[in-house]
Specification:
Largest sheet: 6 strands, antiparallel
Number of strands: 6
Distance between the termini: 19 Å
Radius of gyration: 20 Å
Number of domains: 1
Strand content: 25-35%
Bound molecules: zinc ion
Order of helices and strands: EEEHEEEHH
Length: about 180
């Protein structure tokens, strides 16, 4: 049993995994994530594993390179440094996210892309370069919220005290945020 398999909030090793699919739009980007793993425990602590977030950011940064910014002038190609003079067009890109321990996630990203007239590399306009990170954070939050919005716990399986604290927690409507 490793730490990764324990709830970061209460330490229980009785974690359930759910896989959800979600679509969000953030700034210039829409992203659909399929097979996002969300972990939750009987105390209603919900989290998207941190390694999934890291892997998603890494994979999308590779698949969606961003142009270099230049002050008051057109962006430059991040590969050959030519000025990017072609208009951005919306494109859909599939990004596969793999981790060591979790099932594969597929992201379908609807993004603006501009093609370098020199080397042909498709890249995000620099104004959109932070939008991928925002969209991914929004997506993972939405996946966690979907799971915490459901009543995952079968109250009949709980002992009397657990049942009481479970009801109390629910009735307080405490925000249930995913851990980090
Ligand atoms: Zn917990
Ligand atoms: Zn280029």
């Amino acid at each position: 049993m490793t730490d990764a398999e324990r709830c970061p909030a209460c330490g229980t090793d009785r974690l359930q995994r759910t896989r959800v699919s979600k679509e969000v739009a953030a700034a210039s980007i829409a992203v659909h994530g399929e097979g996002l793993t969300v972990r939750h425990c009987a105390c209603d602590h919900v989290e998207v594993p941190a390694e999934l977030g890291r892997a998603a950011r890494r994979a999308s940064a590779e698949a969606l390179p961003a142009a270099r910014v230049r002050w008051l002038r057109p962006d430059r190609c991040r590969s050959c440094a030519r000025p990017l003079t072609m208009p951005a067009r919306r494109t859909t890109r599939a990004v596969t996210v793999t981790t060591e321990t979790l099932p594969i996630v597929t992201l379908r990203c609807d993004v603006p892309m501009t093609r370098c007239p020199g080397c042909g590399l498709d890249q995000l306009p620099s104004r959109a370069r932070h939008d991928v990170a925002v969209a991914l954070a929004t997506l993972l939050q939405a996946a966690a919220d979907e799971v915490s919005g459901e009543d995952q716990v079968d109250v009949d399986d709980l002992g009397p005290l657990e049942r009481f604290t479970h009801r109390l927690r629910r009735s307080r409507g405490r925000p249930r945020r995913p851990g980090r």
